[in-house]
Specification:
Strand content: 15-25%
Distance between the termini: 35 Å
Bound molecules: zinc ion
Order of helices and strands: HEEHHEEHHEHHEHEEHE
Number of domains: 1
Largest sheet: 5 strands, parallel
Number of helices: 9
Amino acid sequence: MPYLINPFTTLGNWIYPSICPRCRLAVNKEEGLCKGCRQDLSLNDSSCPRCSIPSTGGLICGRCLNAQSPLSESKIPFLYRPPLVKLIHRYKYRKELPLARTLGRLFINGTPTLDHTATDLLVPVPLHPSRIRERGFNQSVELARYIGKQLDLPVTTRAVKRIRATPPQAALPLVKRRFNIRGAFCCPEPLSVKSVAIIDDVVTSGATVEALGECLKKSGVETVKVWALARA
Ligand SMILES: [Zn+2]
Ligand SMILES: [Zn+2]
């Protein structure tokens, strides 16, 4: 009921005004960033519907046209450019966990065509336990928890396991990424849901989400889509 003002949210904003995490101006909690900072984000508004790589006229890209992909669609509203790069770095590497809320809000507000009623389950991209020990948390899990709470969708961290520690994808040239990630995931049990959205912060080559998608399809999921914040 968007026409009703929630007195608790309004009161909460008044007692504890939110601050834009980029410029420190006061901001409505429902916006994530202030208007000026939001206008500085690069929109991924013309992209392949399946993998979200920027494409002319939003047409399906050559790779998706020619290759078999386990993914039916991707919703990635922003490009991985400043100032989003710095916000994601602060979240991921400087462990500013409240930014999960900001980034989750940007994703939801930036994706008005999100078909969340046709989605049964959110699956954040798992990290290998050794990477979780090193970083202290999984950025995709926190993001998925916020998005799940807002859209009333369940989140699972048990459906898929990362069974192999792989070198960070970002450190590898594009051609090696697909090889690097192969066999990195396994689904321990069959899944009885129809439609799953994989949650990630940044999608670079798409190799990770494709490997995860293959795994989910093998375990019985009919439709696998990707919801991420930024496309590199
Ligand atoms: Zn700002
Ligand atoms: Zn594509």
